[in-house]
């Protein structure tokens, strides 16, 4: 077996370090990574997970077939490399590779404790086994691996530090498939990287009939789409390339890669909340961007058209590129003239149908706030109306309604319905009270009236938010709490 150094370890297990000797597998000249080491079980070996703290019957060179093999391997690692090394491998759940031989029925097991595992003394009618080889990841060795083998002549385990060879290979086999959606932009990843395992650093290359249609990241095996190539399912639905890997020793392996182009459906649904809001000589269009739907083409922007309602001729198309576009303003319009607008999503699977807005008429000036936030900013938490009948916002979507001596909290939704009108819908927290509505008519930005349909027939209530109503009782209490104490 070659030159032998002094025994390592004590007790029933004698271990010997080899300074040189024949490899058990094949010569290893480059360090291997743990990932590569644990990705492939060498032929003739069994993979087990190092495990501490489990009772076993026997010791590594003589144990029963029903012993926990990972615990037996842990004991052998402890004897070979010490408890600190063995415990770290067990805590990590590291994979080691073992070969074993059958010993027949054995008796007379001796109790032995190695690190965090103890074997039991026992006479067994079960078949016996011996670990003849254990291959493990060992960063202290030149190859990052070590292997110990059992010497029948001496009853000792011999360690070799240059035994493991990780053959360069693609673990997925000789052919793989990757997918990418049609119409993908340049530099889009085509599925997961096409990775090989082997020793040392690997370099990837791509060839084949369609290699010019894609790019490859040399350090990772990631295939990507390429600028200037149109990936259209209706034109070409499948591409073929070959990915090769080479290690630092010049070893190479290749895999055939089929790239399937995924057919997408058009995304032509009308954008949510498409609204047209009139201003002074202008109209603001707004919408919520459409969400991505799996299997559908991505919306890449929107197209918008306008026409005067009377002549029926649509004007020039405005193209708005960008998935996050949420609106556009039309100016230089004629007040009191009705206008109509329409919109359609812009995506790569052909033109979509148009979706029209309601007819909208620009007004000389806008008095009503455009939305809930603008209304809340203008009114704040003050009470709007009279002391006997009013509403006030607690937040942009929460309000308190008072009428006929009764005060109720509600979820309130403010909607602008015109240049000088709006509605507030109230859904009360008390389920026994029906939903109702306040219809607001503005005479100025701070004054007007509202028809209160809550608590019976509609009641017209004037309001002027330029001054405050008398404080409500709870406001009086808050103010009293903040008042300074008398200094008299």
Q: Which geometry do the CA atoms define?
A: elongated
Helix content: under 10%
* Quaternary organisation of the protein chains: single chain
The poorly predicted ranges are 1-28, 475-488
Mean pLDDT: 83
Structural class from helices and strands?
mainly beta
Count all strands and give the number. 32
Question: Helix count, per DSSP?
Answer: 5
Give a short synopsis of this structure.
The protein is mostly beta strands. It has helices at residues 34-38, 69-81, 83-92, 372-379, 473-482; strands at residues 4-8, 14-18, 46-49, 56-59, 62-64, 95-105, 112-114, 117-120, 127-137, 145-151, 156-160, 175-181, 202-207, 214-216, 223-225, 238-247, 252-262, 275-279, 282-286, 301-308, 318-321, 327-330, 339-346, 355-356, 384-385, 389-395, 398-403, 406-418, 421-428, 436-444, 447-452, 459-464.
What would your notes on this structure say?
This protein is mainly beta. The chain contains five helices and 32 strands. It has helices at residues 34-38, 69-81, 83-92, 372-379, 473-482; strands spanning 4-8, 14-18, 46-49, 56-59, 62-64, 95-105, 112-114, 117-120, 127-137, 145-151, 156-160, 175-181, 202-207, 214-216, 223-225, 238-247, 252-262, 275-279, 282-286, 301-308, 318-321, 327-330, 339-346, 355-356, 384-385, 389-395, 398-403, 406-418, 421-428, 436-444, 447-452, 459-464. Strands 1, 2, 3, 4, 5, 6, 7, 8, 9, 10 and 11 form an eleven-stranded mixed sheet that branches. A hairpin with a 4-residue loop joins strand 16 (238-247) and strand 17 (252-262). The longest helix is centred in the N-terminal third of the chain and has 13 residues, at 69-81.
